[in-house]
Specification:
With 331 residues, the protein is mostly helical. It has a domain of 202 residues: Orthogonal Bundle (ABC transporter involved in vitamin B12 uptake, BtuC), CATH 1.10.3470.10. The chain has 15 helices and no strands. Helix 5 packs parallel to helix 7, helix 8 packs across helix 12 and helix 9 crosses helix 10. The chain starts with a helix and ends with a helix.
Amino acid sequence: MKRVRSLLFSWEALLVILLATCCVLGSVLSPYFLTGFNFYALTSNIMEIAIMALPMTLIIIVGEIDLSVASVLGLASVVLGLIWQTGHPLWLAIGVALLVGVLAGALNGMLVTRLGLPSLVVTIGSLALFRGLAYVVLGDQAVSNFPAAFTNLGFGTIPGSEIPWSGLIFAILALIFAVVLHFSSLGRQFYAMGNNKEAARFTGINVQRTKLILFIVSGLLAALAGIIFTARVSSARPDNALGFELDVVTVVLLGGINIFGGSGSLLGVVLAIFIVAAIQNILSLLNISGDIQSLAIGLLLILSVLGPNIARRIQVAIARRRLAAGSSRQV
């Protein structure tokens, strides 16, 4: 009974209600919201952000942050486009783009773990560095002559459904991350590191190596998101996914991940991804400008920081009140 009650008062339960509210509002405000094609559009438009949010979840849980993910996406995109444009096979271009993501993540991780620099400062700097490198690699050009088999990865759907291929990729990755985070000893180490880094180190956890691996995974999946984004828009440009890091941080924090680390669940992040996607989709259907949509994302980011903290304080207050009531009964 206590477990059911705790679930009902959890942040994830509130997110379920919020997602259901978005769906009801969307269906009332637009007759196109519940159509199959709109579900495809809603899903495909958020998948690159969703993929980058998975490693970001783990990085924030261990007490760090990576604000360079969108720039890594853009850099991987232009590297992919340049290699393809110069006549090399597409598989080689994809492999090099993924390698670029690994190297970018390793650079962030080394600066944070080996030099002890704050990840916020490091990744703000690398955000500008990687985006600048993207402009150096390709300039103001764009590569768009990709084969249909490749672009189908971005906007094609699984046969017999309205689910994009990118949605299937995200679902597989989300399942892997959920198992690692919630059903493995490695996941428990992530939470321990976020709660108390020094205590985790004394228990035998290799904090530096773990964080380095997480930054490398973040770079790798940002590059994967760059490949999917390039396929979806059929264009490799240095300004691809400009500003997406704000959306990634928003969905992770709105999902209930503590900005200071040590708590949160992947289920909340997945729910937050679709809440943000639904809100953006509703605003688009209502022909509301991109500036207003950015304002909405900004407000969500503020809510995502305040909301879970307020919810936790309420839960703590309720627990203390119950404890006090139980003590008075015993007396």
